[in-house]
From TrEMBL:
Gene3D superfamilies named in the record: 3.30.70.360, Zn peptidases
Protein name: Peptidase M20 dimerisation domain-containing protein
Annotated Peptidase M20 dimerisation domain residues: 182-274
Cofactor binding comment, as recorded: The Mn(2+) ion enhances activity.
Ligand binding (Mn(2+)): C94, H96, E130, H157, H357
Cofactor: Mn(2+)
Pfam families: M20_dimer, Peptidase_M20
InterPro entries registered for this protein in UniProt: Amidohydrolase, Bact_exopeptidase_dim_dom, Peptidase_M20, Peptidase_M20_dimer
BP term (GO), one: diaminopimelate biosynthetic process
Signal sequence, renumbered to the chain: none
Keywords, sorted A to Z: Hydrolase, Manganese, Metal-binding
Length: 387
């Protein structure tokens, strides 16, 4: 990998300096296509900005590896000499630039060393992971019809959730299913001095927010993961006016679809009940605005990949436990009905390094870029590499 390090680092820095928000990644998508085309991959556009490169190399299994490439609306404060322009108001605060550079590096290694492997490699670059829209966009755009079904779908994430420069994950639930809902409460506006002439949706919203806290504390087994978050409340403009409506934005997280469904059913029950008690003349409205699916790493695939990791990385191989965060990666694999496995690469050996989504988050370029690329090659090796 020494021969390509300068090129791969330059590509990573370019990606880092050109962050684009979810479903707006036009320039990044074009750069990905150019890089894949130069390596003789057959490139297919799938969805708004998604790109899929396919390299066939004789008989053998078909393996897909997915990387995401959108950025976040966060102003960078890393102090790096290749930091994104702060006037952009956006940055790669979650390592997606590293994911993309590593996959392009692995794609190049496979293109240059066809004598070492056989089969078909699918390099899939997905937009819009941060909003949960990108994987579904590719699935809805006919991913399963446009690209042949792989035997397995693999993916990785860099971050501080893995200690040091560790590599690995575990079977079963890894990330949580997530549902994001916009709830609109309808009261009846009136003058602030005459509250008795209206129905105050602000007071109603306050009661609902407090009531929602009892779902996890009183209606869920303490041994199960369940999170209910009210992340935004919007209503009214004047301190002396009771508004007509208030908007709540609520998210839930759970390891299973069953628990996710329960949480959201409980939310709707509580909201409708409080609205009825308040005497609202109009029913509340519920609109799902985002989320991510249930995420369970396939057990057999996990054992296969972890065995390869232990051989390649030794004591660096471990797991990071289960996380309450969410990922839309399973939607890609589910589009084909293929098994999947997803792991994490540690982004720093500093135990106090800024976490993902921090304006100061920055993977250590050396050795994380090499490590991430090697992890991809090691992960696909049980299927594609010749003995």
């Amino acid at each position: 990998m020494d021969a390509t390090r300068d090129k791969r680092e330059a590509l990573y820095k370019w990606l880092h300096q050109h962050p684009e928000l979810s479903m707006e990644e036009v320039e990044t998508s074009k750069r990905i296509e150019d890089e894949l085309t130069a390596l003789d991959y057959n490139v297919t556009a799938v969805g708004s900005t998604g790109k899929v490169g396919v390299l066939e190399n004789g008989e053998g299994p078909v393996v897909c590896f997915r990387a995401d490439f959108d950025a976040l609306p966060i102003t960078e404060a890393t102090g790096l000499d290749y930091a994104a322009d702060p006037e952009l108001g956006r940055m790669h605060a979650c390592g997606h630039d590293m994911h993309t550079a590593a996959l392009l590096g692995a794609a190049e290694a496979l293109a240059q060393h066809k004598d070492a492997w056989s089969g078909t490699f699918i390099a899939l670059f997905q937009p819009g992971e941060e909003t949960g829209a990108g994987a579904q966009d590719m699935a809805d755009a006919g991913l399963a019809e446009k690209i042949q079904k792989p035997d397995v779908v693999l993916g990785q994430h860099v971050g501080t959730m893995m200690e040091g420069y560790g590599v690995g994950a575990l079977a079963g639930p890894v990330f949580a299913a997530c549902v994001q809902t916009k709830i609109t409460l309808y009261g009846s506006g009136s003058h602030g001095s005459m509250p008795h002439t209206g129905i105050d949706p602000v007071v109603l919203a306050a009661k609902i927010i407090l009531s929602l806290q009892t779902i996890v504390s009183r209606q869920v087994n303490p041994q199960e993961l369940a999170v209910v978050t009210v992340g935004a409340v919007h209503g009214g403009e004047s301190p002396n006016t009771i508004p007509d409506s208030v908007e709540l934005k609520v998210s839930t997280r759970a390891y299973t679809d069953e628990m996710s469904d329960k949480l959201n059913a409980d939310i709707e029950r509580i909201v409708r009940g409080e609205c009825a008690i308040a005497g609202c003349e109009r029913e509340p409205e519920f609109e799902v605005v985002g989320g991510a699916p249930e995420f369970w790493n396939d057990e057999d695939t996990a054992e296969t990949v972890l065995a390869a990791f232990r051989e390649q990385f030794g004591d660096q191989t471990s797991d990071f436990g289960r996380l309450s965060g969410s990922e839309d990666f399973p939607t890609i694999a589910n589009a084909w009905g293929a098994p999947y496995y997803y792991w994490v690469v540690g982004s720093s050996d500093n135990p106090n390094a800024p976490y993902n989504h921090s304006p100061k988050f920055a993977p250590d370029l050396d050795p994380v870029l090499d490590l991430s690329t090697r992890a991809i090659l090691a992960g696909i090796s049980p299927w594609l590499m010749r003995n």
